[in-house]
Amino acid sequence: MNQNSRMKSIHKYWDVFSTIIKNNFVKEFIYRSNTFAMTFADIIWVLVEYAFFDVIYSNINSINGWTRPQTFFFLGVFISSDSLFTVFFQRAFWNFPYMINQGELDVLLTKPINPVFLASFKDINFTQIVNLFLGCWIIHYYGPEAGFNGGIAWLGVLFWIVIGLITQFMLRFCFVIWSFWLERGLTVSHLYYQFYALANKPEGLYPLAIRYIIKTALPFAFLGSIPALALTGRAHLSDYFLVLGVLIAYGFLCVFLWKKGLRRYQSASS
Amino acid sequence: MISSLNLFWHLEWRIAAIRNGVRDALAYRGDFLLDFFGQAIVPVGIQLILWNSIFKSSGMSTFAGMTYAQLLAYTWTSVLFSQVRGGNYDFNLIELIRTGGLSVYMLRPVGVIEFTFFRGFGEKLFTATLCFALGAIATCFTSMTITNLIMGMMLAILGNLIHYLFGSALASIAFYWENAFAVLMVKNMAVSLLSGELIPLSIVPEKYAWVWQNTPFYLFVYGPTQVALGKWDHHLWFHHMGIGFLWLFAFWGMIKISWGISMKHYQGMGG
């Protein structure tokens, strides 16, 4: 592909993306009250997470080396990363099993654009954007006590939020892709969110075996724990290599499963 | 004769709705079991790990007045009731209002709120039976008695009903907002924290305790668990059942008022 056609392709994807954003924005404001209430619901979710750790740390000073400020700093990073995923991909992934089982994927497969791109950005949820700011506020508030320097280090926050977003996208994709083989893929989505509970607690809380799992097979630690350790100067060089290696492996796995799934796809009641 | 036929009809459609709900839940048996055990085992596993880490790292013998053994017992027992408390069938009501599907029910000689409850309750009844069976097995190996388990399960089922009535009252907002999904999401989040399924409510600091003490949500998981573990005696059980019935009547009245007023806004074309 030469430079010119690559630029054309980027331009085409940008056009599609901006149209999707525009359409979803209009859709959100058809049900304005619900959109505002959904924003409120998202804030409540942060409060529930916050209250959980507040109750735990009102009875103890440190758990396996994670002090109160460090844990809340972790929570801030996790909430920020999760909010971006929720904004762009969460709803689309919930609808993915229906698209496969009801044959709606056909429409996307016939379009002259990557079907995964279209399916992933199909349904954007703007309400969660507020959690990105809440998460950043928690990082800012607990950062100094947790060992986060602020200033230029905020670029590091941005980097790790993007790493968390990529990780969650690939993890969720690997769960939802089983809809090609299952009658009702929704159960696997539910199962994903059960395992997701591993992400919203610092990795130090878990025994070694689970710590190993959430850094490799189910890399939920990349959403909050590893970023929090890296941003407070507690991560090792091996952690960076691990993140890189696992994400590359997951990338290959996603492509492999998608191709296998498409071969299995039969349009209706796949 | 006519009144007995009438009674039979009232009973018949409710049983049919429950049976329909059970069948629907079991249509995909593999999915049902995966969902049931996934929802039960994974959160419990994570909680057990959390308690283990707290006690191991701190070397404390008690955490907020509870020993490690007590926390484990609470976590294992609460899972029996957290599966029963569920009930997301109030979401069906907002969908009916939003899509205009409610019109069909207006032509039928059954109430939509009751019908939706019995249909959803069919699935929960099956889950409750499964949880009860697991609990009954546990009585052979633990200090939990079958009487306490039955009493706890009764409180959990009452909690399920309260949860649904509260959700249904909130669902009437959909008549004005077209979509009240977010309102029910807020309710579910509040319930997850204040019902005691995440943490035992007894460890909540005194300054925040009034929050859960003044809502009915503790009757969904925390209350039944306390009864099953023998922490609440028969008197306390009666006391909290009484409180539960008061909440039940309050929400029933709320539904009568909110749906009575809101139905006037319904246009049959999506709220």
Topology at a glance:
The complex is a heterodimer of chains A (270) and B (271).
Chain A: H1 3-28, H2 32-57, E1 62-63, E2 66-67, H3 68-101, H4 105-109, H5 115-120, H6 129-146, H7 154-176, H8 186-195, H9 208-213, H10 225-231, H11 237-264
Antiparallel strand pairs in A: 1-2
Chain B: H1 2-26, H2 29-58, E1 62-63, E2 66-67, H3 68-85, H4 90-99, H5 102-106, H6 112-139, H7 146-171, H8 174-177, H9 181-194, H10 206-213, H11 222-228, H12 234-262
Antiparallel strand pairs in B: 1-2
Helix pairs in contact in B: 1-6, 2-3, 3-6, 3-7, 3-11, 4-7, 6-7, 7-11, 7-12
Query: Helices and strands of chain A: which structural class?
Result: mainly alpha
Order of helices and strands of chain B: HHEEHHHHHHHHHH
Largest sheet properties of chain B: 2 strands, antiparallel
- Tell me, briefly, the overall form of chain A: globular
Strand segment tally of chain B: 2
Domain module tally of chain B = 1
What integer is the average pLDDT of chain A? 90
Instruction: Note the main sheet of chain A.
Output: 2 strands, antiparallel
The count of DSSP E runs of length 2 or more, i.e. the number of strands of chain A, is 2
Q: Report how far the terminal alpha carbons of chain A are from each other.
A: 34 Å
Q: What is the strand arrangement across the widest sheet of chain B? A: 1-2
Could you name the ranges of chain B where pLDDT drops below 50 across 5 or more consecutive residues?
Answer: none
Number of domains of chain A: 1
Structural class of chain B: mainly alpha
The largest chain-to-chain contact, stated as pair and per-chain residue counts, equals: A-B, 43 and 40 residues
Q: In percent terms, what proportion of residues of chain B is strand?
A: under 5%
Radius of gyration of chain B equals 20 Å
Radius of gyration of chain A: 20 Å
Outline of chain B: globular
The portion of residues forming beta strands of chain A comes to: under 5%
